[in-house]
Amino acid sequence: MEAESVSLFTAIGLSEQKAKETVKNETLSLLLREAIVQAQKILGSAVDKVTGTLLYNVATRLKDTKRLGFLVGYIASKKIGTDLQLNAALDYIKSHPLDPIDAKDFEKVCGVGVTVTPEQIEEAVESAIQKFKAQLLAERYHFNMGLLMGEARNKLKWADGKIIKNEVDMQVLHLLGPKTEADLEKKPKVTKPKAGEPEKKSGVAVNGEIKLESASLMEQLRGEALKFHKPGENYKTEGYIVTPKTMELLKKHLEITGGQIRTRFPPEPNGILHIGHAKAINFNFGYAMANGGICFLRYDDTNPEKEEEKYFTAIKDMVEWLGYKPYAVTHASDNFNQLYEWAVELIRRGQAYVCHQKVEEIKGHNPPPSPWRDRPVEESLLLFEGMKKGKFAEGEATLRMKLVMEDGKMDPVAYRIKYTPHHRTGDKWCIYPTYDYTHCLCDSIEHITHSLCTKEFQARRSSYFWLCNALDVYCPVQWEYGRLNLHYTVVSKRKIIKLVETGAVRDWDDPRLFTLTALRRRGFPPEAINNFCARVGVTVAQTTMEPHLLEACVREVLNETAPRVMAVLDPLKVTITNFPAEKVSIRKRIPSFGNFSTLNFYCTFQISSNLIG
């Protein structure tokens, strides 16, 4: 079977190595075989290499496999014959996940039947060259010919790229003539600073506004942010789950938000923010501000055992110190009633159950399955009500959701029992929701468009999408990015708490730490921290930087903003013995140098006339 598949795949143009790799991917292999068989039936003969390449691209990129036969029909009949048309077709299908496809609209969007003549290509290239003629003559063959290609492509969307390139090469040669020795010399490269290295100009946050001198915020918050979906187009994101109610919910979402970008910074109030949080603050607030959106400061206050009022105050203080003003300050506890009602609804839908396994039993990635997973809905409803009324001891019962997460963990806990008063709700609740249950639903309530979180939460993405869809509520998109760490320091709140509790450091603002309160105490300006975060950028990979790169950002800001003074701490008394007067006061003005302020020195000289010379 494997040899047969390899032979079939090489026949459509795949290399033997690529064919063997494809066979190892069972899902891809089945889709590609199905596409080839359908194409052969339509063609009545073997599949040529051009068609085979398009079929392979469809099998690897098409997420809605129900539309496979539809696309294969267009490819086999040569109505879709280029990668450009296929890209348009895949985008169209992705944007119409549930709607029946309108063939006329589809063909119009994909350029089916459109013919581009050589004369049209020649005219488009001539127009492009005329637009850039002055720059082209000045730079000659060092000019970026891609601009000419792009200009011509904009006028002739469905033209063959190879034909356009040949026409560009021919017309440029006719205009400039053959290449000279100067044209063959390599253009000197512009050296770009490495990630984390300070640039000469940068952006800072002042009074809640991002001010940039050399680059826009989105250029500095580069990387993954450029791939983000537009508001209301959540379904275009890789891995997003579309249900029969998705489009209706997204329509209501757009009516509520008006197409506005919405993000949130959701810290747990169980410690002081550190330098890693500064990156999250800059990314969440910065991305929203750069796109005319809003950002919430939402406290994830679902664990009353570790939360203190001083942390709530300090978190808000640090966010504002960095120059950002939240659109609103919210709490997960604001939604405790709604979250409880949704938990009851989840049980009614058969998607959650009350479990009596101990915490130790369900730890790790391969815990034994719960013997209570299939208990009747009515029984789970009564037990969950009993949990709420305090009929069980801590750890005796939990509410668990029926799903398998991306890391293989089964049935995460949604509610657990804690007999600890909450700082905002007091003794009203003795059951509290977990992060896996609370976070996505609070995002949904606040109509967040982009739920930005660090890479370790990627395993929670499946539960994020699953829970919103299980309750038929608006589902935002979770985007993950790499954490920011520093060498030679501790940036884990759990570890810093241990240092504080054991007396290894005085408190959270001990200058040896890299908490934001400690950095402020050391005299680090907030603009320097924002610059540092922007220069590190936003990528999927975890970033570990050297502390001296942060210090370089500090020096750069202080060089421009810090006031300078000069003073004589230990003045010397000078005695002159041959001056005729008894005393004289001499005032000497020292001119300013650079940023140094003008200083006045006052020297009193005591005169004695008994010394000759």
Topology:
Blueprint (H helix, E strand, L loop, with lengths): L1 H10 L4 H9 L1 H18 L5 H13 L6 H9 L6 H13 L7 H8 L7 H14 L1 H7 L6 H10 L5 H16 L4 H4 L18 E4 L2 E4 L4 H4 L25 H12 L4 E4 L9 H16 L3 E6 L9 H13 L7 E3 L4 H13 L3 E4 L21 H12 L9 E4 L11 E5 L13 E3 L1 H11 L4 E5 L6 H10 L6 E5 L2 E3 L6 H9 L14 H6 L4 H11 L6 E3 L1 H15 L12 E3 L6 E8 L8 E9 L6
Parallel strand pairs: 3-4, 4-5, 10-11, 12-13, 14-16
Antiparallel strand pairs: 1-2, 6-7, 7-8, 8-9, 15-16
Helix pairs in contact: 1-2, 3-4, 3-5, 4-5, 6-7, 8-10, 8-11, 10-11, 15-23, 19-20, 23-24
Descriptive report:
The chain has 613 residues and is an alpha/beta fold. It has 5 domains: 2-110, Helicase, Ruva Protein, domain 3, CATH 1.10.8.1290; 118-184, Arc Repressor Mutant, subunit A (Orthogonal Bundle); 220-332 and 439-482, Rossmann fold, CATH 3.40.50; 334-435, Glutamyl-tRNA Synthetase, domain 3; 563-613, no CATH class. The chain is built from 24 helices and 16 strands. A 4-stranded antiparallel β-sheet has the order 6-7-8-9. Strands 3-4-5 form a 3-stranded parallel β-sheet. A 3-stranded mixed β-sheet has the order 14-16-15, with no helix packed on it. Strand 10 (450-454), helix 20 (461-470) and strand 11 form a beta-alpha-beta unit. Helix 3 (26-43) crosses helix 4 and helix 8 (118-131) packs across helix 10. The chain is flat. 33% of the residues are buried. The model is unreliable at 194-218 and 587-613 (pLDDT under 50).
